């Protein structure tokens, strides 16, 4: 699969429909960075009229997972990936369009090289920050990815 926003959004439709129907969309992806947005709507809100935390988690995880998938493809090796752990902080009500950004592409590239060289599984923590339209941080989520050669 080519790693472009349109290809990843099509992937969401077929493989992660709950994220797609909640409004999660990839805006951009590069070797180092992935940006995903989701707009607060009736469909993805909680009883407090802000975005449900699980929708934020889907968007945040996608910023990290897309980078992992892209680096695995670039390695040319068969490597499995799995979220081993995660945590999050919610600092402000998530309303309007929320943009999640992960800048940790370099970390996963290093972990993949270690996995290939050593033949042992590796884990890596990657962070995604969610900001509202004013640039205020609404959440910070961390995902521990486990990777290993198949």
TrEMBL record:
**Superkingdom of the source species:** Bacteria
- Protein name from the UniProt record: DUF4442 domain-containing protein
């Amino acid at each position: 699969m080519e790693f472009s926003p349109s290809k990843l959004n099509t992937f969401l439709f077929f493989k992660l429909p709950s994220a797609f129907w909640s409004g999660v969309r990839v805006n951009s992806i590069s070797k180092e960075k992935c940006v995903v947005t989701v707009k607060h709507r009736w469909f993805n809100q909680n009883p407090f009229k802000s975005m449900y935390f699980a929708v934020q988690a889907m968007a945040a995880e996608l910023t990290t997972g897309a980078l992992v998938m892209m680096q695995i493809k670039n390695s040319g090796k068969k490597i499995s990936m799995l979220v081993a752990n995660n945590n999050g902080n919610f600092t402000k009500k998530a309303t309007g369009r929320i943009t999640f950004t992960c800048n940790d592409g370099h970390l996963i590239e290093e972990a993949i090289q270690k996995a290939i060289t050593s033949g042992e599984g590796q884990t890596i923590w990657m962070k995604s920050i969610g900001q509202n339209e004013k640039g205020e941080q609404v959440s910070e989520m961390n995902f521990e990815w486990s990777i290993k050669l198949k």
